[in-house]
Amino acid sequence: MLNIFNCDLHVHTCLSPCAELDMHPTALVRKAIEAKLDMIAICDHNSSANVPYVMKAAQTTNLKILPGMEITSSEEVHLLAIFDSLSNLILMQNLIDQHLTGENDEELFGVQAVVNEMGEVEGINKQLLIGATDLSLDTLIDYIHQWDGLAIAAHIDRESFSVLSQLGFIDDEANFDALEITPRTGFDRARIIYPELGKFPFIVSSDSHFINDIGKTSTRMNLLEPTFSELKMALRRQNGRFVMEQPQV
């Protein structure tokens, strides 16, 4: 039987240079469960090193973790890439590593910590994760789909690092699986502001960089269970699965 599940498809960890160090895997999972989330996607900036540890931290819980990444295209557009398996995420990571240059400035951007499920620091990522790859948006979307992932345009209503702020429009032929809007806009207002984007499913995500932001917002979805395959059907409105854009009563 289909049920309503609370999903947040854009959560960072302490690996992202702009996230607080309290966003380590165990604390993140604990907070998500307290917030009654059913499924989250871990999407750090241009890196996925903490994803396996978040999955391990959640493996004895009912919280579903989807492996993902927030990638910056050559146009400086932020794009969420969400996968069903770590193996496909690793393929994406190998590609990003070949097309991301620069070294992180910890004083300017913060520490990029790889932390395991026990809260132990495994290492410090020295890449400039806040930077942009030299891969175009269309190229990234093609690779994501090649590896059976979902490509979601991040925070389209933001004035920076969004497809609308950087390119000015979203073509009808754009191959996004969904468009993410911020809670400040919300579903109802977004549908009024962006009537030309009616063909795309919208989601609302927390884009959590701080532990107390987890659970402040989520997208309710009508699913059989919180899984990647069910999410894919919901975004395509297949077999009774769908994103619930109505406000929660």
List keywords for this structure.
TIM Barrel; alpha/beta; 249 residues; nine-stranded mixed beta sheet; 8 helices; globular; two-stranded antiparallel sheet; 27% helix
How do you describe this structure in short?
With 249 residues, the protein is of the alpha/beta class. The chain has 8 helices and 11 strands. It has helices spanning 25-34, 51-58, 86-98, 106-109, 137-146, 163-167, 186-193, 228-235, and strands at 3-11, 39-42, 64-72, 78-82, 113-115, 121-124, 150-153, 178-181, 202-204, 219-223, 242-244.
Structure overview:
The chain is an alpha/beta fold and 249 residues long. It has one domain: Alpha-Beta Barrel (TIM Barrel). Helix content is 27%, strand content 21%. Helix 1 packs across helix 2. The longest helix is centred in the middle third of the chain and has 13 residues.
List the helices and strands and how they pair.
Layout: E1 3-11, H1 25-34, E2 39-42, H2 51-58, E3 64-72, E4 78-82, H3 86-98, H4 106-109, E5 113-115, E6 121-124, H5 137-146, E7 150-153, H6 163-167, E8 178-181, H7 186-193, E9 202-204, E10 219-223, H8 228-235, E11 242-244
Parallel strand pairs: 1-2, 2-3, 7-8, 8-9
Antiparallel strand pairs: 1-10, 3-4, 4-7, 5-6, 10-11
